[in-house]
Design a protein that fits this description.
alpha/beta; Metallo-beta-lactamase, Chain A; seven-stranded mixed β-sheet; 8 helices; binds zinc ion
Length: about 280
């Protein structure tokens, strides 16, 4: 039996959630890094793609409104929980863009996993600070400010909606993944967040890659400040611990929160400690 369109939509809708924000731009959550979208009957933009089943669910929902090719697909960075669903859009994307480093990382990781055939790599890359496109009545600008969560993270600004998808430059009240294997840098990450706060205004809505349970995957500048505070406190804490002669194992066995940033919790503080240690002690 073929399910009715409504039943199908409700099944799909249960699978994930569409969250409209402003001026036809919103976000979708199911499993993996938060997806951003712009949806009108004439235009379609998707930012990040989670995994293949989730991207297929999203596409079915988008198709209720728009059956045209995607004007633009953006990957904020290469991690699999943001790019594995790219393949669901194969053949129906006019432009698929990421920073050159993100492209290189995605290709390198896919080759190492012998999985290149199942990946959709961007067809367009850039290496400067900015890349822009006009889609309908919206201007979309990608901003790159150097290594942070990886060496290829971009902020995606829907300028007229005044919404910025931060990708994994933002972990809301959740210990971040800091991918040193892909050129992450905590010190510069702090600067990237400072730059974001100076570039965007108090009305800007930010979409976050991840949040801890009970916290939203969107917010404002105050949330960027709070995360910037977490990262700078992490570096300060590690500098002090190293001067006191502590070992990484000792720290990992005893530390449950970073002094000065008690809101950051959950599993995974060891990733922060590992990364800060590498940066401060090993200069990586
Ligand atoms: Zn990531």
């Amino acid at each position: 039996m073929i399910p009715s369109r409504q039943l199908l939509a409700s099944i799909l809708f249960d699978a994930g959630e569409m969250h409209p924000l402003r001026r036809n731009v919103g976000f979708y959550t199911e499993r993996g890094g938060t997806i951003g979208w712009l949806l009108t009957k004439d235009h379609l933009v998707v930012v990040d793609t989670q995994f293949k089943p989730q991207a297929e669910n999203l596409l079915s929902i988008l198709r209720e409104t728009n059956d045209k090719p995607l004007d633009l697909l953006v990957n904020t960075h290469h991690h699999r929980d943001h790019t594995s669903g790219n393949i669901a859009f194969k053949g129906i994307v006019k432009t698929h863009v990421a920073h050159q480093n993100s492209y290189n990382n995605q290709k390198r990781v896919a080759e190492a996993r012998d999985n290149l055939a199942n990946e959709l790599l961007p067809d367009t890359t850039f290496e400067g600070e900015k890349w822009s496109a006009k889609v309908g009545d919206e201007n979309i600008t990608l901003h790159y400010a150097g290594p942070a969560h990886t060496n290829g993270d971009v902020m995606v600004h829907f300028e007229n909606a005044n919404i910025v998808h931060m990708g994994d430059l933002m972990f809301n009240r959740r210990f971040p993944y800091i991918d040193k294997s892909a050129g992450a840098h905590i010190g510069n990450w702090v600067k990237v967040l400072q730059k974001a706060r100076s570039m965007f205004d108090d009305e800007t809505i930010f979409i976050f890659g991840h949040a801890d349970n009970g916290y939203p995957v969107k917010g404002g500048k105050e949330d960027l400040t709070a995360f910037e505070n977490y990262l700078s406190n992490l570096l300060e804490f590690m500098n002090k611990a190293v001067k006191e002669g502590k070992t990484l194992d000792e720290l990992k066995a005893s530390v449950t929160e970073i002094p000065g940033a008690p809101e950051w919790k959950g599993d995974g503080i060891s990733r922060s400690l590992d990364a800060a240690w590498m940066e401060i002690v090993e200069g990586k």
